[in-house]
Amino acid sequence: MAQQEEVFKKLISHCKEYGFVFPSSEIYDGLGAVYDYGQNGVELKNNIKKYWWDSMTLLNENVVGIDSAIFMHPTIWKASGHVDAFNDPLIDNKDSKKRYRADVLIEEQIAKYEDKMNKETEKAAKRFGDAFDEQKFRETNPRVLENEAKKEALHTRFAKALNDGNLEELRQIIIDEEIVCPVSGTKNWTEVRQFNLMFSTEMGSTAEGAAKIYLRPETAQGIFVNFLNVQKSGRMKIPFGIAQIGKAFRNEIVARQFIFRMREFEQMEMQFFVRPGEELTWFEKWKQTRMRWHKALGLGDKKYRFHDHDKLAHYANAATDIEFEMPFGFKEVEGIHSRTDFDLSSHEKFSGKRIQFFDPELNQSYVPYVIETSIGVDRMFLSVLAGSYFEEKLNGGETRVVLKIPPVLAPVKLAVLPLLKKDGLPEKAREIMDNLKFEYHCQYDEKDSIGKRYRRQDAIGTPYCITVDHDSLVDNQVTIRYRDTMKQERVPVAQLEQIISEKLSMKNLLKTIQ
Ligand code: GAP
Fold first, then answer.
1. pTM of this prediction?
2. Nearest residue CA, atom 21 of ligand 1?
3. For domain 397-511, which architecture applies?
4. CA–CA separation, 506 vs 413, rounded Å?
5. Sign of torsion over alpha carbons 226, 228, 229, 235
6. pLDDT digits (tens, 9 = 90+) for 257-287
7. For the domain bounded by 87-196, which CATH number is listed?
């Protein structure tokens, strides 16, 4: 774990050094849990958004997009339940004065039991080699069984406390489990209190009587309140979906782990409206579809898992997370929720407008049920970088840092490198780039040795480098160098596009998840 934390620190500085992510307002010493995306970061982010948007709106003829405003009527947040219930349970350590989310402290404790079980199993696997039967070991080893029992007991108690909204019990669990503050090392805890996460501001001048409004904490409500507009103007029939990408804001108190938990972040959400009673079938379908979308990127199937929710919101009848193995453990990247008819019904009640669909096949009107898929762009960004970051030892003892970003998502697709800055090589390189730049984001680089230039491109994840040398002027061939294998190949300029296009094609990637 310590080694993984070290990797995470390196990844954060790599992001800054190579123009992916900068702390916001840095020359003023930064602003807590707010980040800016640099020249490479914004390209990667845009590519992630395009992959999501195209997978929703091109692959599903019954999913359409919208772009709703961040400012919305304040009653929307009353109707959605955010004013009354969008809270985190917080606890303070009296010695360090540090504040924590009580639920996160307990989840970390559960993960510790799991860690112990895994370590025990790994040790035994090394000892017994090929003869090791993991399942049998896990079923019989007393230390594994003891930790399993502790984990299960804690899990059950925690789920009940959350479901009951029992803050005293959450505190008691922290005391009973002897959880200490990572900073002070003490168990001197305050009570657990609820804290609302919405940012508010005022609209209009004070003289007119300004109205308190909120910065949206999720993009979903912009979709719900436009259900009728889209359904009617698009003549949409149930089942259909509305997708949206946009900023969301949460006053996260415990904002750690870089861009994993931010105060200003971006969501890609899709609400899929279905007939009442059919929601669990659609929930299962979207679960599988979304997992396919993640795995198609090729970062490794084992890095993903589902985590079904213990605590279902009172309006949900099923919910799961897709988790990715970050350097700090498996963490939620996307949530898939079956939200019943809660949101639309609630907006009916608060707005006084009828929000229903007349189903001609059933000859009946109803409030549709909703399956939601909700993924954070920034968390997706972090998972792509974490899954792509490698430090590789090369022959000769040198180490290269390479981002093996899925080629379709890579910020720069192609670097064009004249071997020398003279003899007509730059002109030839520019000519090649001028042909390819309309389709692919290319970078021209003529400074330093070719080896250094390859390293620079590895560090930002450029899948292809094209080197132009003196022979190129005669035979119209160039050397193509592949990022992941570092293999080099001599190819005719005329074939370049064909060679690179297969791996860089969004269409090919989308075809794999159809
Ligand atoms: N509309 C449902 C909803 O907002 P959520 O689980 O609260 O559900 C959905 O958020 C996704 O948004 C999460 O899976 C995560 O990827 C992202 N997200 C939530 N809070 C975030 C934060 N503070 N910073 C970055 N991403 C966040």
1. 0.89
2. 261
3. 3-Layer(aba) Sandwich (3.40)
4. 13
5. positive
6. 899 999 999 999 999 999 999 999 999 999 9
7. 3.30.40.230
